[in-house]
Design a protein that fits this description.
globular, 4-stranded antiparallel β-sheet, 41% helix
Amino acid sequence: DKSNPLIVYNLAQNIIGSEIIKLAADVNEKIKQGEKIYNLTIGDFNSKVFPIPAELKKLIIKAYEDDQTNYPAADGMPELRQAVSNLLKERGDLNYKPEEIAIAGGARPVIYALFLTLVDEGDTVVFPVPSWNNNHYAYLSHAKQAVIETTAENKFMPTAADIKPHISKATLIALCSPLNPTGTTFKKKDLEEICDLILEENTKRIAANKKPLYLMYDQIYWALTHGDTKHYNPVSLRPEMKNYTVFVDGISKSLASTGVRVGWTMGPKPIIDKMKSILTHIGAWAPKPEQIAAAAYLNNLNEYDTFLSDIKSKVNARLVGFYKGFQSLKAEGFKVDVIAPEAAIYLTVQFSLHGQSTADGKKLNTTADITKYILDEGKVALVPFYAFGASENSSWYRLSVGTCKLEDVDLIIENLRAALKKLK
């Protein structure tokens, strides 16, 4: 309707809203009506259950009391970039100078600036699904999308064989490990093979004087590994990858600080410089008090280690509790499955309920039907993998434990058991 001045076209008109936010609306309506709903959809922390480090909170308050409330340095406060450089060297097996690091208001603006810097209109971005928001950033940068649908057999992590058919046309490969939404990670050999594929392609491109192929490596959850799981990064495995890798990182997940909004990127200095310029025009700076506080906090790595150990223990207890619960349901003959937890705050679970009928005879024909049944009967909210770009009939889900109390785990499993028993 051209007479309506509120109608917008092109980019804004065609952008797709978050499927998770749509699901949250249903959840919130039920809670508003007084129902007890266990909301395991949100990739966030309940700050009453998982508060930020007490010392970090004190340092943030002190920075405000010291009136550190003017503009921060455009590329991040120097003391924070130095602290991040040291953290990466001491705990992340990565050597990046402060000038190869840019600070931003969390990981989201970093990813957007990265896409805008490296991807021209019509370029091809390769990414696996399920994965978080790559489709939206590719759309916003007017890119072509080469989507790889991964499988449970490989814990939903892409392989070099998956990527190879697309590599000659790609400008950017967007990967994440530990992966949101699955909580699974790259094995060393698999990531090495992907790196070798990228290096081989770039050898050809250099000889032909063509635009390089870059890798976005989102490792925002890297500190939250569990058990024997080890995090690997492309640059440590293949030092030559430093020329072609741009990282996404920050404290949002490791320090349960999603609302503090301190993220960073590191990579080749010419690219980081361009990303800094874009971030400046967007105004996507992390607040100055939070930057000053984060710098002081990260300079004490012993305290950082102590907090990490505690949060990992608490998250792992929940993940293992749900994992054992789903294993029990599966052993009882219910059509569910689960992948062992490896990292992050997520568990990958399956409800293979397509075609089953509810007690009142209604068939569960679609994944949306199943999701609604689990919510209505089990009082449990989960995010289906189609919200992360997987096919609409995928039976796999993300279960997030960041807002869950440990004592609720058994209650949730019992709710699911009762709901599953009603199906025919």
